[in-house]
Design brief:
Elements (H helix, E strand, L loop, with lengths): L1 E6 L7 H15 L3 E6 L27 H10 L2 E7 L7 H9 L4 H4 L3 E8 L8 H12 L6 E6 L10 H6 L2 H9 L7 E7 L2
Parallel strand pairs: 1-2, 1-3, 3-4, 4-6, 5-6
Helix pairs in contact: 1-7
């Protein structure tokens, strides 16, 4: 199975990146091919909302890095959206990416989707918006069957502790290995502060 991880954080070595890397390791250990796209390294604009892509066979009129990313999305079986919680939802970078997937609406129904998210919040209720936004996004092109939200647990340290987190990934890796990828299911994976 081809897995594409879309990392939507502006922080190069932040907690969401660590979580995504451990998910990748777990998917690779399970025998899946995985590729990671770092959105912060790509140059792409906002969707114009012109709908030209629906009149020309699914090609965006903008000539930017999104064309390459969309080809990767087309080729993947599983799309993993990895975004930290910024003001109760996606990062702006992730939202811009999601808007630009509009040309692919006809084929996204055949993909499985996962969400990897975390945030420094005192209670899991603050994660409700991003989980709802994920369900609404996936619901745009397929009947969303939310198998369940899994709390992957503890990456609740401030981002400046990332060196220590990177050095001690074993607990996170064990939790992520339990979050296996199954064909035909969409799952939300969230990590929240305990």
């Amino acid at each position: 199975m081809k897995v594409l991880v879309i990392h939507g954080s502006m922080r190069k070595n932040g907690n969401t990146g660590i979580l995504a890397d451990e998910f990748i390791r777990g998917a690779q250990d399970a025998g899946h091919g995985v590729e990671k796209v770092e959105l912060r390294d790509k140059k792409f604009g906002d969707c114009f909302g012109c709908r030209a892509c629906h009149n020309n066979g699914g090609s965006c009129v903008q000539q930017d890095d999104m064309a390459e990313i969309l080809e990767k999305v087309k080729a993947a079986d599983v799309i993993v959206l990895a975004s930290p919680l910024y003001y109760f939802t996606w990062t702006g970078l992730m939202k811009r990416f999601l808007d630009r997937t509009y040309p692919l609406l006809p084929i996204l129904q055949d993909k499985d989707f996962y969400l990897l998210t975390l945030g420094g919040v005192p209670d899991k209720k603050f994660m409700a918006n991003i989980l709802s936004d994920f369900a609404l996004y996936v619901g745009c092109f397929k009947e969303f069957n939310q198998v369940g939200v899994r709390n992957a647990g503890g990456l609740s340290a401030p981002v400046h502790w990332h060196r220590e987190l990177s050095a001690n990934r074993q607990p996170c890796r064990k939790r992520m290995k339990r979050a296996r990828i199954y064909k035909g299911e969409s799952r939300c994976l969230s990590s929240i502060r305990r």
